[in-house]
Design brief:
The protein has one domain: Rossmann fold. About 35% of the residues lie in helices and about 25% in strands. The longest helix has 16 residues. The chain has a six-stranded mixed beta sheet with strand order 6-7-8-3-9-10, sandwiched between helices. The chain has a four-stranded antiparallel beta sheet with strand order 2-1-4-5, covered by helices on one side. Strand 9 and strand 10 form a beta hairpin. It has about 240 residues and is α/β, with parallel strands linked by helices. It is built from nine helices and ten strands.
Length: about 240
């Protein structure tokens, strides 16, 4: 049974000051079973991030359906759920990692990760323990644990962003270029977490430009110019 089905998805954007409407993506179809990982590939500007943001409901689709098999609500169309339902899903079931970190002001790294776990109704003691484990895993310097992340470097912010999203062990995880500004050692840490989440049943949709990083992780690849196919049939890695 599919955990996620994207059917005939399309999205337009209107440039109001020019009076123009542009088609970002159209006729997108793919499905994923629990624990599968699909990599979306295509040239810059082809609409890869638009797909992820529409699954996360940052954008509202113009056409088609995004059917997700929720643990709480059963099969639902993410294009049509209420804001309250979507807020619940973001807190408890669907994670999103982008290249950028948008966080609450005057909140430390440690507090941000603890907050993510407390939203999952984890006890405070467990939230504190797991937050420290995540900070250690992603090798954030201890002096940064109780520091506001607006002072961090790009790579430090990205590692924190990944830690916040993955510590919750979401049922569905969306990854938008999460290794873009990381060094090789940090990429290894990200890969370890992805492998563990996948082994534990997390379903993943990702965009990556690092071919070596993706080797052996993806089950399927969706080329923006074609349909998704199993990687073993095409011999294709997930390349952006």
């Amino acid at each position: 049974m599919a955990l996620l089905e994207v059917k005939n998805f399309g999205k337009q954007f209107t440039i109001h000051h020019l009076g123009k409407t542009m088609q970002a993506v159209e006729n997108i179809h793919f499905s994923l079973d629990k624990g599968e990982f699909i990599g979306i590939v295509g040239k810059s500007g082809s609409g890869k991030s638009t797909i992820l943001k529409s699954i996360y409901r940052t954008y509202l689709p113009d056409t088609g359906n995004i059917v997700y098999d929720s643990n709480r609500f059963g099969k639902i169309d993410l294009a049509k759920v209420t804001e309250r339902e979507m807020l619940y899903l973001r807190k408890h079931e669907i994670g999103y990692v982008s290249q950028f970190l948008n966080v609450m002001p005057r909140t430390t790294s440690r507090q941000l990760i603890e907050k993510a776990l407390l939203e999952m109704e984890e006890p405070v003691t467990i939230a504190k323990t797991e937050a420290e484990k995540a900070l250690k895993h992603f090798e954030l310097d201890r002096k940064l644990w109780d520091t506001y992340p607006n002072t961090f470097s790009g790579g430090e912010k990205l590692r924190l962003n990944i830690a916040i999203a993955t510590v919750k062990k979401p049922r569905l995880l969306l990854l938008d270029e999460p290794t873009a500004s990381l060094d090789q050692q940090s990429k290894v840490k990200v890969r370890e977490i992805i492998e563990k989440l996948k082994a534990d049943g997390t379903t993943l949709v990702g965009i990556f430009h690092d071919i070596e990083f993706m080797d052996g992780l993806c089950d399927k690849v969706y080329d923006m110019k074609s349909s998704p196919v199993p990687l073993q049939e095409e011999g294709v890695l997930c390349e952006g």
